[in-house]
Design a protein that fits this description.
Layout lengths: L11 E2 L6 E2 L12 H25 L2 H19 L24 E5 L16 E5 H4 L12 H13 L1 H9 L8 H19 L1
Antiparallel strand pairs: 1-2, 3-4
Helix pairs in contact: 2-6, 4-5
């Protein structure tokens, strides 16, 4: 039986120093210099760490909640772009930029702490100036509190039936990680459609 000669290994370029070398096997990425092997090992470790970190954050509840909240609030601020503050009724030109950046928040009628099930409900969230949303609003009309003004203007905006529904809605549901991913994607897509 005729023996076939093994092909000599093809030379490769070292991933670290760039020198040509003959690998021992097809998986070898660097030449045999210690600094090249160590450097390549560190690169691989960093890549693994980044992958592990990404997987962690892709499955971290607080990160997903923040992504969903950010997407939802961006949509609300764009949806209500031409509306005044739901509490004090002031428009963009009447409000100064806040020290924390921006003029507007997406303010909840029923707070996220008290009514977490309404956290992403569009009837419950409206454009609100930072002053009113922070509870320091001094601009409410007819001696109403910020909260009372919010309710009066909310009834005008969405109707009494929806406001009453918000006030007595208490169907609590814990959002799963998949729910949070879907909410973030839903509001990103809604924002894109709104901007078109």
């Amino acid at each position: 039986m005729k023996q076939t000669a093994l092909k000599p290994a093809r030379k490769k370029k070292c991933k670290h120093c760039g020198d040509q070398f003959t690998p021992f096997n097809s998986m070898q990425q660097t030449c045999t210099k210690v600094e090249c092997c160590v450097s390549h090992g560190r690169k691989l470790q960093k890549k693994e760490n980044r992958k592990a970190k990404k997987e962690f954050y892709d499955n971290d509840r607080s990160v997903l909640m923040e992504k969903a909240k950010t997407a939802c609030h961006k949509y609300i601020r764009e949806r209500d772009r031409d509306d005044p503050c739901i509490s004090c009724g002031r428009y963009d030109y009447e409000i100064k930029e806040s020290l924390t950046g921006g003029k507007w928040d997406a303010g909840h009628w029923k707070s996220r702490g008290a009514r977490p099930e309404l956290r992403f409900n569009e009837y419950n969230i409206h454009k609100q100036c930072k002053s009113c949303n922070g509870g320091a609003g001094k601009w409410s009309k007819k001696d109403h509190t910020v909260s009372q003004s919010y309710k009066i203007n909310l009834i005008e905006k969405i109707g009494l039936r929806h406001v009453e529904w918000l006030e007595c809605h208490n169907e609590s549901k814990k959002l799963s990680l998949d729910d949070l991913r879907e909410i973030a994607l839903y509001y990103k897509n809604k924002l894109k459609e709104l901007i078109k």
